[in-house]
Design a protein that fits this description.
This protein is an all-beta fold. It is built from three helices and 49 strands.
Length: about 725
Amino acid sequence: MKKTFKTKNIIFLSLFSLVISSFFSCKEENTDKEYTAYLFSYFVGNGEGEEAIHYAISKDGFNYHALNNNQPIISSDSISRTGGVRDPHILRKEDGDGYYMVVTDLLSKNGWTNTAMTLLKSDDLIDWSSTIIDIPEIYPEFSEVMRVWAPQTIYDPQEGKYMVYFSMLEPGSYDKIYYAYLNEDFTGLEDAPKQLFFSPNEKATIDGDIINKDGKFYLFYKTEGEDDKGIKVAISDSITSGYKPEPGNVDQTEKAVEGSGVFKLNDSENYILMYDVYMDGSYQFTRSSDLKNFEVVDEEISMDFHPRHGSVLPITTEELKRLMEAFPSNNLAEITGASNPEIKSNNIVINKEEQTIYLPVREGSNLANFDPGFETLPGVTVTPEGAQDFSNGPVTYTVSRGENSETFEVTAKVANNPVVEGYYADPEIIYSEKEQKYYLYPTSDGFTGWSGTYFKTFSSEDLVNWEDEGIILDLEKDVSWTSRNAWAPAMAEKKIDGEYKYFYYFTAAQQVGVATSDNPAGPFEDSGAPLISELPEGVNGGQNIDPDIFLDPESGRNYLYWGNGFLAVVELNDDMMTIKEGSSKILTPDETFREGVEVFFRNGKYYFLWSEDDTRSPNYRVRYATSDSPLGPLDIPEDNIVIQKDEEQEIFATGHNSVVQVPEKDEWYIVYHRFTRPKGADMGQSAGFHREVAIDSLKFAEDGSIIQVKPTLEGISPLN
């Protein structure tokens, strides 16, 4: 069955002109024959109208903007029998003159059984003709096929033909990947499908994705099975046979995944492997140079939509212009960022509704002569150009595309929060007497499911300007007893036999370890075994995480606190690495206690701070109690909030803190994490592992009670 149709724009927006004269900046570039951008084709869900082809574009392969207001670019009814299509895959023709696309013909509300796929072809990525291929209808030998899923196409250079490959399930078997060559006009298969690959564990194998690198073919696929599920890669010298699976998985999460897609970054030797973390409604991106070893790059990714199983095609400037003209979208910001290195680019806020832009800049920036270096989508000009005076308030900019223009009020302000750029959480801080400066020890964040495996430290003389000291402990290299979940460290500097020693307490695999060094910036050597591995006596739930080390200035004793769902304490021996027998005690203050205890001493009082709620919740916040002893009992004030969200400033999930005192002064600062801003507000629970570290002043009333801290964007001024 063959159909021809023309897609129509759903909404025409005046801000997209048919005349687009420039590329990503205000300067013209002759890049029509080069790949300068990316097209992401995807579907969005299993609900009504969601099983359809959508488009998004990107300049860099990391930050994506939905086209057509995130509405379908083709009516599923016009190209399918079921009324739904999924898993779109677009391929550029080998001669560059046109495009092929294949999709699964399936509407999930009718069940997961289907027998057809749809082949589509186009000259311009906009108008598509289609043919439905029903496998059992055409090939009687497959008359009992129960599903035909996730087709993709690739060019076979040896045969000089295009090949389609997909998974099929027959009764009494499991999903296997098949292939067939396509006829010249891309409307049918030359022959019946042949088996391409099946999982060695004889479990379902679906969502195949093949890419050619250096003459070898890499087949990414999803397997099932209780003990061996996830995304794997098999490699062959032949496109149609001989695939040998590599050991282990290439996905970087313990969660259920499917729909992998691989593409090479323009002007780079790196590849992106992305996949659908479908139970979470999220997408994970990873990067690799060898297509075997991948690192998560979620912290670099942004999307103003929620995709399901899709594919990415590198495109030219001319193609990008054409797509934007055909599928305009009012959520497509003409200004996509700013290149001035003094701007904290992850925290730029572009508000199209209010037509404002907020540029957070680093301490010491010259705002009287400041050029943002705006980055734009194709066809956009921004005036005025060059450096402007932001020292007296906002500057008005005009953003134009062709004959259409709008103005933005642009504010550039010093923003010392976050204190270090990138995703970090659970900050610990000390002042080093040896080095006469401050050291920050956070959790390395930005990893789905808090799956980071290493710790870093940063140093500063003024609490504002921080130097990255690098990785100080890597679980995979430095710790023999585990390699997962590097969380929530604590640090102590102690003089032993006239020499400064450093004791680094850290969470790994829901246990507390300890590592040592002669320097606050490491490297640190692990003790060889966890210090805390069993729940305390009398505790039946919770986790052994979030240590805090406290050296009591009154008694000279050393106390280690920890716990999630409970608060426990033990006394450490003078070696700081062993527990004093019989010293364990439970101090859980009340039902608000979740985790992240911080203990410090001021004016004869011991302060106990902790985090309430879940770190993935916008309401994550800090409470406190006081005591006359490091071992309690705890006195909980009626109003004991230390810091909490500020919705007006869009600051959320302010928690898991530490506290530092300026030496020889009654001057205190709270160091905490928050959701990344502004992205975190829209990330859902994944904001809970995309966090940033901030510092604000901590002040006390005359009676010693803590005055509630208002979280700020500007942070503190540099200390003298």
